[in-house]
Design brief:
Layout lengths: L1 H13 L25 H7 L20 H18 L14 H15 L5 H19 L8 E2 L6 E4 L7 E4 L5 E3 H19 L1
Antiparallel strand pairs: 1-2, 2-3, 3-4
Length: 196
Amino acid sequence: MRARLRDIEQYADALDATPGVGGDSGRRSPGYGSRPPANLDVIAARDPRSVAHAVGPDDIDDATRSIVGTLAALALWVRDERKRLGEPPEAARSGAATIATESRYLLGRIDWCTRQAWVDDLADDIRELHGQARRLAGEAPPRSLAPCGGCGGPLFPIGDTGTVAVRCGDCGGTYDGLTLLTFGQRLAFEAMGAAS
C-alpha cells in the first residue's frame, strides 16, 4: 500500500491531458466523430469534483475517479474509524485536500490500518486508484532525476515538458527556477568531488 500511494502521487504529477498522451481512454467512435481537444479521463482524474467512488449497486464503478477526491475519502474513512475506535484525537487538516496531504496522512497510518479488519477494503481501493493513475499516466511511473537536497528522497519532474520543476516524492519539496539551477549546480560539484 505504501508503494502504491507513493506511485499515485508520481503518476498524478505525470498526467497530461493532451489528446493521445497517457494511455488509451477506451473505444472511440468510428469515422469523423467529434473529439474534445483534451483527454477527458485525465481531466476527470485531476478534478476534485469528479466521482471519488461508486456509491451504490447501480452506479458504475469503472468511471474515472478523482485522484484527490478518492484519497480524501479514504483519509476521512481512516480518520472516522480511528475516532470511532477511541484513538487519540488528531489535528484537523488545514486547507483544501491535496494529493500530497491525503497521501501522507494515509502513509502515516498504514501500520495502524493493517491491524484493522477492513484493511483489505482499503488495500483494494488503493490498488484500484493506483491502476487508474498508472493507466492514465501511460503505464510507466516517472523516473527519479536525482536525490532531494532537503531529505535525500527521489526528485521527479512535474508539469508538462514546458515546465522545468521537480518535486520530492518523500518530503514534497519543490524546486524550480533559480532554486533548481542552484540545486543542480550543487549536485554537479558533489559529483565532481566524488570523482576526484
